[in-house]
Amino acid sequence: MPSSSICEYCGSTLRSDQQFCPNCGAANPGYVPEKSAGKKAGGRPRTIGELQEFCAERGMPLQKMRFFIGTDERSPRAFGIYKDGNDYVVYKNKSDGSRAERYRGPDEAFAVKELFDKLIEEHAKRAAQPQQTRAHTGGGGGGRPPKKKIPIRLIIAAAVVLIALSQITKNSKNGYYRFSDDLFYRYGSSWFVDDGYGGWRETDGFPVSDYDEYYEGGSYDESWGSSDFSDSEYWDDIDSYDDSGSDWDSDWDDWDYDDWDYSDSDWDSDW
Predict the structure, then answer these.
(1) Residue 12: which of 232, 235, 221, 194 has the closest Cα?
(2) pTM greater than 0.85
(3) Which end of the chain has fewer surrounding CB within 10 Å, N or C?
(4) φ, ψ of residue 133 in degrees (nearest 5)
(5) Which of the listed ranges 104-118, 156-170, 172-186, 234-248 does the model predict with the highest average pLDDT?
(6) Residue 236 banded pLDDT, cuts 50, 70, 90
(7) Cα separation of 17 and 33, whole Å?
């Protein structure tokens, strides 16, 4: 598990696997290179090239999905990443054509993770959640026919579950939530809360059932004044796309992109 330190220039929290500070770009004196620089089998991409390869292998129609990898796309309604000099830029073009930069800095792995997390989030909005499931179940694809034959009883059961869940909450996002002064992290049906002492602990659930309005984001923000959940003891057990233990092929390759509608995205927010 990566250790943490403080950037001597801007005071941001640094992980030992970050070569540069994601906030100010200063070199991290505590950087510890990974044993394997390349993407591990089944793991998430760590470079723009690996992300392009990942999407190409799965036949993702990126222009239709409005994801532009390695391109400084200027048209409205677009997510993207590109290299600008020594910096990597992760951006979102809103409906009115204005741009919000999610990240600009020298840390390519961090930049790629930001866009990759957004790609996961956009899939989750369309009932495909590769970050939670390792076997494609069909029957929740918004009318998209599964490519594999699945017993009709399982499809009906899945549909019933999805309908019931939609009545409970509108939000199916993994990530950070805040209630009062407490920061929570949701992963699937599991909830964790910052213990106030630099660590995290499991909790029975969120204080309120309709928790969608309390969503803070999928990525850690040091301005919250809490610790990063990815530094906790729980992260290695649930980070299903980070290293060698995950099988992404079944989660992505069976997805039919024909009905992808990019208008489903919230193009008016910063991210």
Answers:
(1) 221
(2) no
(3) N
(4) -125, 145
(5) 104-118
(6) low
(7) 6
